[in-house]
Amino acid sequence: MADSKDNYDLDTLAVRAGIDRSQFNEHSEAMYLTSSFVFDNAAQAAARFSGAEEGNVYARFSNPTVTAMQTRLAALEGGEACIATASGMSAILSLAMSMLQAGDHVVASLGLFGSTQQLFGNVLSKFGIETTFVPATDLAAYRDAVRASTKLFFIETPSNPLTEVVDIAAVAAVAHEAGAILAVDNCFCSPVLQRPLELGADVVVHSATKYLDGQGRVLGGAVVGPKVITDEVFKFLRTAGPTLSPFNAWVILKGLETLRIRMDAQSASALELARWLEAQPGVARVFYPGLPSHPQHELAMRQQKSGGAILSFEVKGGREAAWRVVDSTKMISITANLGDTKTTITHPATTTHGRISPEARAAAGIGDGLLRIAVGLESIDDLKADLARGLAG
Question: Which residues constitute the signal peptide according to the record (predicted)?
Answer without folding.
Answer: none
